[in-house]
Every structure is written in C-alpha cells, then in structure tokens.
Amino acid sequence: MKPFARLFAELDRRRRARDQDAALSAYFRAAPPEDAAWAASLLIGRKPRQAVPTARLRRFAATAANIPDWLFAACYEQVGDLAETITLLLPEGGGLEEIPLHVWLEQRLPALHGLEEERQRRIVLETWHGLDRTARLVWNKLVTGGFRVGVSRRKVIRSLSRLSGVDEGVIDRRLLGAWSPSAEAWRALLQPADAASDAGRPYPFCLAHPLDLPLGALGEPEKWLIEWKWDGVRAQIVRRGGEALLWSRGKEGISAAFPEIRAAAELLPADCVLDGEILAWDGDRPLDFGLLQRRLGRRDPGKRLLSRIPVVWMGYDLLEEEGCDRRSLPLAARREALARRLAAAADPRLRLSPALRVTGWEEVARRRHEARGRGAEGLMLKRRDSPYAVGRPRGIWYKWKAEPYRVDAVLTYARRGHGLRAGLYTDYTFSVWDADRLVPFARAYSGLDAAEIRAVDRFIRANARERFGPVRAVKPELVFEIVFEDIRRSERHKSGVAVRFPRIARLRRDKPAEEADTVETLRALIAQKETTP
Amino acid sequence: MILPPWLQATASGLFCAPAGCHIDPRRPVARAVVSHAHADHARPGCGRYLATPETARLLRLRLGEAIPVQELAWGRTLVLNGVRLSFHPSGHIRGAAQVRLEHAGEVWVVTGDVKTASDPTCLPYEPVRGHGLVLESTFALPIFRWPDPAAVFADLLAWWRKNAEEDRPSLLFAYALGKSQRILASLPPDAGPVFLHGALEAPTAVYREDGVRLSAARRLAATEAPENLRGALILAPPAASESPAMRRLAAAGRAFASGWMQIRGFRRRRALEAGFVLSDHADWPGLFAVIRQSGAERVFLVHGFAEELARTLRAAGLAAEASAAEHEREEDEAPP
Ligand SMILES: [Zn+2]
Ligand SMILES: [Zn+2]
C-alpha cells in the first residue's frame, strides 16, 4: 500500500496540474494491474464500504493514545478529519510488512467488517502501530469509507487515456458502468475501443450551463426547446439485449433502487439509450426531494416503500437507437424518436418531459416564475439543433433557475469546519425571530469569501458564549442574507419549516439584529408557494 | 483562583501588586516586565520596561530607540519592594525569558512563550523550580507532537533542492522574528542563494550584531531580476503572502514553517505544496516536561488550548485553571 500512500501524499500536496499528472502516470506505470485498478477506482471517488464503525475507531484511538473521549473530541474539532486525528494522536509507527493495496481492499478490510470489537481492536491497533503516518492516514480513510483526494475524475481519466492511447470518452464510459476493480478489469479498461465490449454502459451525461447572458442574446425563441427544470435524480435508461439498466450521473447503477422504472423500461421496444430524470411523483407534481432520497438509499425497496413513495422517469433525450449512436443528430429529431419510443411502451411511469409552448422571450421569463408552483426548479433552454455533447458545453443547453427565496437571519451558533476549513468557524446556524426569541431555521457553510470567513471567525471567537459540545452559541449580532431553493413545513424543525440548499448571499452589516426576518415571513413564503398554480 | 494574592490576572494582564509591575501587559501600564519581544507580549506606550539584554535590543528596534528599558542580566535578581525577580531562558526565541517571582516564601514562574526543542539562535530552555507556574498553552492538544527539527530541516532542504532543479524559486513563509532566524541558522552555508522579504531584514540584522551565525541572505528588491530568483530560497512573513510582490512569484513553490502545519487542512487551505512542522512553542509532551521539571503543583494557563490542558492537569491531580481571556491568541504563531 506504500506506493498508493505516496501517491495520495503527492496529489494532496501538489497543486500544479503537471505535478499531479506526473505523479499519477508514474504510479499507474509502476503499479501491478490489480493495484492500479483499485487505485483508479478510489481516485474517481468510489468508496469502499466502512469496515469498522466510526464510534469504535474513536474508542480504539482514544485508548491507544491514552486520552479521555472529551479530549479526543477536542482534537477532532481542531483537525476536522477523523482519519487524520487518529493518525496524529499516535506516535510515528512502522515495521508492518508491505501489503498490496488490492489485498487490503479485497481481503483484509472486508475480513475486518463485522468482527467482534475485541478482535477488530487488536487488528486495528497492530496496523496503526505498523504503518508510518502517511500510510496510516490513507488506511484510516479506507477503513472509515471516507477516502477522498483532491484530484478530479477528469484528470484521472486523462491520465489513463494517455497511458493506454484509448480515447478519454471511451475510458469515461467504461468507468461509468458496474466497474469492479481487478487485474482483468484493468486490462479491459485500457484495451483499444471496441463497440461490443462497451455494451450495457451508459453515455457520459451532457450537462447544462447556468444561463449567464440575456435571453435576447440567444437569438430567435423558436430555435429553442423550453422545458421545466426538474429536481430529481438524472438517470439514463440503457435498454440493450433484452435488459434494461438505470444509471445515475457518474455513480453506480441505480436499477435496484427503482425496480418499477426498470420493469417499465423493459417494455420499451428493444435497444435504445434514453436520458431523463427520476422524480418522486404524485398525481401531477413532484413530491419533496427528501422522499426521493429515501428511495435512492434503498436497494430492493419493499412493497410498502414502493407504494408510499411512487416515482416516475421523465424523459429528456434519446442517445442510441437500434445500436446506433444518435448523439450527433439534432435535439428535435432525437426528441421525436424519444416520444415514439415512450408512446410504444405506453407506461405511465415513463413520461416525456413536456415542452413549454411559448411565443417569445417575455413569455419564457414569465413562465420561469411559475416553476416553483409546479414543483420545478426553473427552466431548461436547449437549442433544437443541438447535439448531445459531452460535459458542460457553453451555448447549447442552459439552465435558468427560479429566483431563490431570500431571508435576513441572525447568526446564533457556530462550529468549526472540516477539511479545507478545519479550525475556522465556518459552519453557521441562522435564526429568525419568533416574537422576542430567535429560533434556528437553517445551517449554511458556503457563500463567503476567504476574507469574510476570517472576519466572521474573529467575530465568533470574540463573541462566543456557551458551549454545547463543539457548538458555540454566539452573541446575536451579525445579520446575513440567506438564500434557499425551496421551503416546506416540517414538524422536526423548531421553526416549523425546512429549507433546501440554504447558503449565504451576503453579510448585512447595514442591518441590526432586531430587524432580521421573522417566522411569519417564512410561513408567508410557504403560503405563497402553495397558492401559485 | 489559584494565583496567589500578590499575582493577579487583570484586564491589562498579569499584575504583581507588591512589585508594582505587569508581566507582558496587553495595554500600556506604568511598569512592564517583558518576557520577549513578540508583539503580543511587548506593547508600546508603557512607562518603563524591564527585559533581558537581548530582548531589550529587539524592543528598541520594535518600539523605538528612546523607550525607557532597564536590562536585567540572565539569572541576576532584582528586588522590587520585597519581590525577588529574575530571568531564565525559555528557549522560545532570542532573549525570551521565563520570569521567576519570589514573594512571601512562595515562588511563581511565568514562562512567557516556551520551547523545549533545540534552537541554535537562543539559550536552551532551562527548568526553573516553583510552587506555581503561569504556562502558555498555544499547542496544548495531544495531536501536536513535533518531529525532530533535524528531520524537518532535511525535508526543507530536499524541497528547496527539488524546486531548484526545476529552476523555480522556493518561497517559504515564516514569522519575521525568531522563526526566520532559526531557519537561517539551520541552513548549510552552501545550500544556495537566500533572499529576505523587507520585514525580516531588521530583526535579522540584530541577531547578526548579537553574534548569532546565520546564513548569508540578501534583501529581496522589488526590481530583482526573475532569473536571479530561480533556485533561490525566499523567506517572507505569512502576512505578506497576498502582497503584490509575493504574487509576482507565481511560479514559486510555496511552503510555510509553523506548528500548525501539523494539520493538513491548514496547509491545503492556503494551497501550500509543503508545510514544515517547525514551532517555537512547546508541543504536548514538551508542556508536560516543563510542568514536571518545575515541580509546580498549581498551574495557570494562558493562550490557545488553555481549557483542555487545565482539565487534563486536574485529572492528573494538579490544581490548574485556564485564563478567562478566552479569545486571547498567540500572534507570533497564529493559525494560518
Ligand atoms: Zn512569542
Ligand atoms: Zn506569545
């Protein structure tokens, strides 16, 4: 595992693209195929299953370092990373025989899973003491299932493409599927492209660019297809050779989570690849995203869950027909083909995302305001002659989100951030007034620049009050404008509302805390949303 | 309150009433005993200062030639209205002293900032026995265990050499007073050209005048030709990292020498390609060594993780208390 730990350290440190490229290709060239396969899988963000529960790891580490739990917690709060905290708490180690990466991932870690605590403890402590700090950090990240490294999927794919001479798109697509690391899989991954062996896999998704120019600059409205922007799980249906599979973006297959969509897809006339979105759906509108997430988290959902959270697949596009790649055809033609397929399948769970009939840009702008009322996030604008491109190209597909909701709220609690923000107070809780009391309604981490983060961190240190574990109560003084995408009633939240994607728009130094918004403002937003068509 | 009645923690800092002096006051006071010349220990505007001779020279540099500073040699005792006061090396930076106070049959040692690791630019930390200890706790968490400085300097040289092979400058951020000179004193003489940011020039000159052997280094001029910087090591204070002069060195490899580099997040946040764990403060084991060697049974903690260390010491049977000034922070080694 040492070579992989060294690669991790290099990637973690080196910011320059060419240093990272050099580290990657040196590793892939030297590594035996069975290790290289696992390395590639980890680097593109596939996480192994957690082998030892977090609570146990904390306990083992605190005992090994001979410190009480509260002190472990204080260290963790500073470091902001569990694997690293454990690494730092134990003295430098070494002397464990080298065990290759694939042996760890295929045998040792899975064997650790489910062992009783005492036996796990023995093995974990032995390993900690036997590994040097770099290797220990990487090992901890593998054990906790939290492995991440600061290198993009694209960069890894580029490196593999350079190594093999195989086109980046082909590698990307091969890695999308049910790719399980092994020496065999590694060789297959780097083999010259051939259509047959790539069956069953989805295409790289084409993504929309945020609309960043005036509508007028898009030319004639007739050249554009306008659709609702749905907020679900983007998914391709790959219907080939009598089988239908569902793939989400860059992730594992999701067929098992949505058996009813898969069954419906098997009714499609054979051999096609379709792109669309899975939505939790009831009657004529989507259900809350949280419900869809519950479905997504369950492989093999039971009958009860299937009937309580019904889903549909909303079709956007057709990428392949009778074995032919149709991605370079114009969108209008692809959509027609899609509509024909869906009509033939005639299943209510497979729908065509409706095209909005509009007569001009003004009407487009008007329809955008209706989006929330329909349970959509905004609008999609796609050129009718656009191909199905790779990545997020400019100029052909745009997403135009509805205006977010805005509320002025008071900073009342803070805790330290993780990763890049370790040690700084960057995790904030915001509250609004309920009569003369402040009730928390949103937590947000992002939206401030580095200088503002430092200034707020200083304010929090100087104005911290009680401590609740890692959370500090803060003197209610700073007002922030908080924006969010959706709001709904919630019994589980003190304020009675839950918001989606809250983030900080700006610090409002001009506003005293007393003038921040109230719970009534939030309730009014919900009422408003429910009365729009 | 575990401090004796003749030593109080006030809003202006530690105050010894019978002697009529503050130790490292936070605000201007009539009489200041200064443990060392870092800005958070030596404030301008005091009526009189008392310091070691080395600290006195650095104080004049920082606060002006004309300030009224009385020098007290290492180990010599000054009696102030019945309080016996003396300075003993704390190993933190050049001139840095622990202040030993003896009154009414009781001895309290105020460590100022303290370092137990080796440093060629100052006298090594010297244990001082006392009934009580006022101890800094900047890095008082068990995650802070410093590696051997020799190994850190070897890493630093390797990083510099690798950059030099690629013809790029190595930009190393380090605190202007203490850390920078410690680095200059630890570089081999023939390692390559070294440049100093302007802020480092004056303190470095004082060290040299004091006879501390430091590597040769030139001031980094705004007009310096880029080809002169290829392969060079440039030392600069962390506060300068966003300055136009430093931004111009876009091609440089960037690193930071600080105890905070123990934590990956701090290094990554600044997009540094290397972090050298090099601190002028005691680490967790070092703090325990200082307490043990002092023989103190009462410990008052200031800076950093005071609460955490106090609680740990109480569990070990000592009387310990954290300073109430909760947001008080080290300025010489603030987290980046
Ligand atoms: Zn200091
Ligand atoms: Zn200090």
Largest sheet of chain B: 7 strands, mixed
Query: What distance separates the N and C termini of chain B?
Result: 33 Å
Q: What's the story with the biggest beta sheet of chain A?
A: 7 strands, mixed
Going across the major beta sheet of chain B, what is the strand order? 7-8-9-10-11-18-19
Q: How many independent structural domains of chain B?
A: 2
Question: Radius of gyration of chain A in whole Å, from Cα?
Answer: 26 Å
Query: Largest interface, and how many residues on either side?
Result: A-B, 33 and 27 residues
Number of beta strands of chain A: 20
Structural descriptors:
heterodimer; A: about 525 residues; alpha+beta; DNA ligase i, domain 1; D-amino Acid Aminotransferase, Chain A, domain 1; OB fold (Dihydrolipoamide Acetyltransferase, E2P); 3 domains; 7-stranded mixed beta sheet; 7-stranded antiparallel beta sheet; 19 helices; 20 strands; about 40% helix; about 25% strand; globular; B: about 325 residues; alpha/beta; Metallo-beta-lactamase, Chain A; Rossmann fold; 2 domains; 6-stranded mixed beta sheet; 9 helices; binds zinc ion
Structure description:
The complex is a heterodimer of chains A (533) and B (336). Chain A has 533 residues and is of the alpha+beta class. Chain A has three domains: 2-143, DNA ligase i, domain 1; 209-401, D-amino Acid Aminotransferase, Chain A, domain 1 (2-Layer Sandwich), CATH 3.30.470; 405-531, OB fold (Dihydrolipoamide Acetyltransferase, E2P), CATH 2.40.50.140. Chain A has helices at residues 2-13, 17-30, 33-43, 54-65, 69-79, 82-89, 101-112, 117-130, 133-143, 153-164, 168-176, 183-189, 259-265, 289-296, 303-308, 331-345, 361-370, 450-463, 519-531; strands at residues 209-210, 224-229, 233-240, 243-248, 272-282, 285-286, 311-321, 324-325, 350-352, 378-383, 397-401, 405-416, 425-434, 437-444, 464-468, 471-474, 479-484, 486-489, 497-500, 503-507. In chain A, strand 18 and strand 19 (497-500) form a beta hairpin. Chain B has 336 residues and is an alpha/beta fold. Chain B folds into two domains: 7-143 and 281-322, Metallo-beta-lactamase, Chain A, CATH 3.60.15; 149-276, Rossmann fold (3-Layer(aba) Sandwich), CATH 3.40.50. Chain B is built from nine helices and 19 strands. In chain B, the strands form three sheets. Chain B has a seven-stranded mixed β-sheet. In chain B, strands 1-2-3-4-5-6 form a six-stranded mixed β-sheet, with helices on one face. The radius of gyration of chain B is 20 Å and the shape is globular. The two termini of chain B are 33 Å apart. Chains A and B meet through helix 5 and helix 6 of A and helix 7 and helix 9 of B. Residues 36, 38, 41, 92, 113, 332 of chain B line the site of one zinc ion (ZN).
